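Just scan this pair:

***
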Amino acid sequence: MNITVKSRNKVLQLDTAIPGIRLDKYITQVFPHFSRSYIQKLIEQGHILVDGREAKASQKLNSTSRITIQLPPLPPTQLVAEPVPLNIVFENEDVLIIDKPAGLTVHPAPGHPNHTLVNALLAHCPSLAMSNDLVRPGIVHRLDKDTSGLIVIAKNDLAKAHLVNQFKSHTVAKGYLVLVKGKVFPQQGIIEAPVGRDPRNRQRMAIVENGREASTQYQVKESLSNHTLLEVTPRTGRTHQIRVHLSAIGYPVVGDSVYGSKSAYTKRQFIHAHRLGFRLPSTNEYREFTCPLPADLEQALETLSHNI
């Protein structure tokens, strides 16, 4: 095995000793100080390529496989509690349901070490500091910074494992209110197209042949001038999935400057996570929660209605 290190890029050339080994298992053996779950996340996020292409953690390697690894900067592990007000929709001993405002990042990351939802959660629930996850305690899923709406937080590690299993098995009900440009037809449908890193711009996602399976269901709720309000239900949870899928079929999200264009009606992407349903960890009781559109998105709809 040859390893060439340049900056934070590591290029590995497998020898013939272990053909047939899983990608994630092999990298964990080469870098034992990284957990297998961390390696799997790097693969999912497109930081690890096999023969120049995105891969899956379960991909079997052969004697000629060439692996490229780009390690992102590690986020800080010293989290500080910050008394940021939270809009709590529900809370018990296991979970918190938060109506997250647009503009609030979920967890610390390079370039954004504080003033996140995690910092606010540590002030509200100090016991989260005892979590096994030192970087994203309690976080089981995420919303984009500029997406508002419901997010569930696990208050202990047992609850987190219970919720993670539900997300992995796609049994969590998620509903988004999304405004797109154009009159959507047909009135309902399912978009199925693999999503992965855009090979021309690694900061973006795109529909790519070797991407991860992705499925998005939509239903028209209201037509407004040359715009349509949709109820969107993602069946999978790929990064930027809703935005990529809707843009791909010709109906970009209003205010989405990455996959569409800026809008005079809203300063941010019109996506609101208004419905979230799952089984509570301790009782296994199914509960569904909803929250209304925030004022800025309501104003956008009102302005559009007046323009008709």
User: Anything to note?
Assistant: Residues 132 and 157 are 7 Å apart (CA to CA). DSSP finds six helices and 16 strands in the chain.
